[in-house]
């Protein structure tokens, strides 16, 4: 791919930053700079928001739903046609193993396909009212949507946010993460090629504190969608409050995997280790705590140990289970948790191994199983965002539920038991946005409403549920006698 000094896209035109500044694009596998992107800031955000506002009343605003859907179907097809290049770029930019990158690109295409099919089915309501009145509830687009997305799944987050926004007739300004913007640049090019009109999708690359802050504070933005840390989520929600605009926040998690004595050990252990090492543990919904019933501690933890020891870490091209983490800061953050666990006397139960492709300049971390971890310890409470799994024990169902709900987060939970009544009892008592019974993550499941409670955020993305976030109702009351 050519260099990206002109990675800002406003009203159908690629531009550099007004300041002429750029940011280095590094590969987490070796720390090498392989490209540059424009460092956009407030001036570019101002123009991008103005372009998005103008486009709302242009052709996009007058297209029928099925016409928007056709453009999105074309984009979906283009993404699949470019899957190899996009996956290589995503793997290089984020460090994820190439097959995981390929899966992400396929899910990006699926988002556009899914929401294309919904674009002509955004239905309103007719409400029976008093005699002589006709009441209709229309669903209208929010308007200009400001999207701020993170670096862990850049391409699929592009689909997850922009898919429902375009399907419902909104226009967009996207600020991708400074650590991984390349696939978003590529996807924006494809969107233009697919026929998304100028101004409907604008892209401003740059830093969170500059471009991101300018976008979230902009009075011309009607709706904000943010995925990232809980800390920045607070900043975004504060900015949204200042302008009285709604926001969807998808923040972190400390999701529990609850393993009861009557579970299928083999399936549970393999899935739990796969999930925490996928994307090097940098997944908001990663199951990072495994709650094991005391009566099966020894055999189940033995199984977890052997699975964790089998995990190999290497460069994206080696296509192993686990790649590097995104940057030096993240590597030091994860290492800090491991160092403090050591100081606190928490035992390392097992670690994965480094492949020869994991060179010394890459941001590699050995996947680690630790335990038993007290429920109050930071390993049991805080989001690590790395391939680190904490084992916690419980005696009975009531205690498992209390521990599972006993953090500030509430995103996802896994329940492993063959007892059907217990499956549903526990699922109903968990304060989270998704519960998986005898599976976890369902391969991303773009059809499935997703989001958190507590410090994991609010609002729902994915599935048809997201369409409600990207629209607002207008009730029209007509008196006709
Ligand atoms: P972050 O929350 O700072 O970055 C996410 C996005 O927010 C990026 O696009 C960034 O440019 C933008 N941003 C940062 N500061 C901003 C501001 N003041 N105003 C507007 N936008 C801003 O995440 P970071 O620093 O990269 O990672 C730190 C920790 O956050 C991770 O260790 C992890 O625990 C958590 N995280 C969680 C994610 C999730 O999917 N839930 C994704 C990324 C990070
Ligand atoms: Mg940050």
How much helix, percentage-wise, in residues? Answer: 25-40%
Order of strands across the main sheet: 15-17-18-13-12-19-20
Q: Report the end-to-end length measured between terminal Cα atoms.
A: 65 Å
| Strand-pairing-aware structural class | alpha/beta
Shape: globular
C-alpha Rg, in Å?
23 Å
The name CATH uses for the topology of the largest domain is: Aldehyde Dehydrogenase, Chain A, domain 1
Number of strands: 22
Q: CATH first level of the largest domain: which class? A: Alpha Beta
- Assign the CATH superfamily of the largest domain: Aldehyde Dehydrogenase, Chain A, domain 1
Major sheet: size, sense and barrel closure?
Answer: 7 strands, mixed
> How many individual helices?
16
Uncertain regions spanning at least 5 consecutive residues: none
Q: What is the CATH architecture assignment of the largest domain?
A: 3-Layer(aba) Sandwich
Q: Provide the list of bound ligands, each named once.
A: 1,4-dihydronicotinamide adenine dinucleotide, magnesium ion
List the domain count as a whole number: 2
Mean pLDDT: 97
What percentage of amino acids are in beta strands? 15-25%
Kindly describe this structure.
The chain is an alpha/beta fold and 481 residues long. The protein folds into 2 domains: 4-251 and 459-476, Aldehyde Dehydrogenase, Chain A, domain 1; 256-445, Aldehyde Dehydrogenase, Chain A, domain 2 (3-Layer(aba) Sandwich). Helices cover 39% and strands 21% of the residues. It contains 16 helices and 22 strands. It has a 7-stranded mixed beta sheet with strand order 15-17-18-13-12-19-20, with helices on both faces. A 6-stranded mixed beta sheet has the order 9-8-7-10-11-21, with helices on both faces. Helix 3 (65-81) runs antiparallel to helix 5, helix 3 crosses helix 7 and helix 10 packs across helix 11 (297-309). The protein is globular. The model has no long low-confidence stretch (mean pLDDT 97). Bound molecules: 1,4-dihydronicotinamide adenine dinucleotide and magnesium ion.
